[in-house]
């Protein structure tokens, strides 16, 4: 490792540009555009999830895409199973 090579923080994968990380304070202000309920960050950090609407909104380059056209539907039972297994 050269002296000029940056060291990635332990809490973030080295491939994630810190410029594109969603600020937790921003997350607290965002709501689902359909239900106006709180959004949760997915375990892999790539989507904001509305449990009330069963929608997942992608995060691209640190910017949440809160358009209903961008959202994907998910089955809450699949989400519970993934959470139980500790998978994305």
Give descriptors for this structure.
88 residues; alpha+beta; N-terminal domain of TfIIb
Write up this protein:
With 88 residues, the chain is an alpha+beta fold. It has a single domain (18-85), classed as N-terminal domain of TfIIb, CATH 2.20.25.10. It has helices at residues 24-29, 76-85; strands at 40-41, 47-50, 55-60, 63-64, 72-73. Strands 1, 2, 3, 4 and 5 form a 5-stranded antiparallel sheet that branches. The termini are far apart.
Secondary-structure map:
Layout: H1 24-29, E1 40-41, E2 47-50, E3 55-60, E4 63-64, E5 72-73, H2 76-85
Antiparallel strand pairs: 1-2, 2-3, 3-4, 3-5
Short description:
The protein has 88 residues and is α+β, with helices and mostly antiparallel strands.
Assign the CATH topology. Answer: N-terminal domain of TfIIb
Low-confidence stretches: 4-9
Strand content: 15-25%
Number of helices: 2
Rg from Cα: 15 Å
CATH architecture classification name? Single Sheet
Query: In one word, what is the shape?
Result: globular
Q: Given this structure, which CATH class is correct?
A: Mainly Beta
Task: Count structural domains.
Answer: 1
Major beta sheet summary: 5 strands, antiparallel
Order of helices and strands: HEEEEEH
